Amino acid sequence: MAVRVTIVAAPGEPELSLVLDGERIALGRAESADVRLPDPSVSPRHASLRAHGGAWLLVDHGSTNGTWIGGVRLGPEASRAITSGEPVRLGRVWLRVETHVHAPASTREDTRDLAMRLVARGLTSLGEDPRARVRCVRGPDAGKEAAIPDDGALSLGRGADAGLVLLEPLASRRHAEVSLAGGKPRARDLGAKHGTKLGGAPLSPDEWTVWRPGQTLEVGGDEFELLAPVVDALAELSQGSDEEMREPGSAPLPPDAQPPPDEEVSHWRESPDAPPPRAHAPIARGTGWDPGDAMLVVFALLVVAASAAGLLWVLRA
User: Fold this and answer.
1) Residues whose CB falls within 8 Å of the CB of residue 145, separated by 6 or more in sequence, listed in order
2) What is the mean pLDDT for each group of 10 consecutive residues in the chain (317 residues)?
3) Cα–Cα dist 62/47, whole Å
4) In the beta sheet, which residues pair with residue 67?
5) CA angle 284, 290, 296 (to 5 degrees)
């Protein structure tokens, strides 16, 4: 069974989603999570979705800020059946889970791409430029920099059509280029006469090599560093500790993530011998009484009246 997990976006922002299948789907901040949520209010191993008898269960794993469904917080290792389209919250992050989806499953690269998009969105909201950039730190072109396109490559060379035009005399017109693949920066030599080095090692012509943190790219006497704010922030968030929310239950429900009316809910503490889920009665949404309520009130009034009559008889005796 496949499910679609969508990050509920703020107004005006596109929603991001993943389609996942399997018996268990991990949700959290850790790099190993199937749905990676790079927010400090989300624990590394926060919660999971589990297939159970044709239904999907949401399970909290003792997270710091809790897993919430419709304003109800799940206890540690407690489970609850989830209705398709129902909004849930992990820390301060709202998700919408759709079950029984028929669509191709997302890849690990898709998972990483979603996490990086979320980080980029956060950096932008803070007024920071999230784009990866190449900057010359030594040589004739020191101080020059240029952004790496999300859907292409940044070329370096003396040619006027290069993305980063160089003054270095040993640089070829089309010397090297840098691109992003799955969020990972990489570089390659374009058959330059004097070659290109990455981390001190020569690059093979026309073969991509991952540009790792701390390495410099050498083009003649120019040395370039890689600035990747999204990659750096994602790594920092993955390794950081949980941020404890002051009021973990107070995050407002997004307007477009209201739970479906008359939802049936099930929740129980999971154990190896746990029985299959049983749906409780729909949550009441209104002020009307049903016949059972009326009979209960009438019975209560009769009891009160009988008690009052008995007390009056005792006082008169």
Assistant:
1) 133, 134, 135, 136, 164, 227
2) 88 88 94 94 96 92 93 91 92 93 89 91 90 96 94 94 97 95 88 96 93 94 94 88 80 51 35 34 31 45 50 45
3) 8
4) 90
5) 110
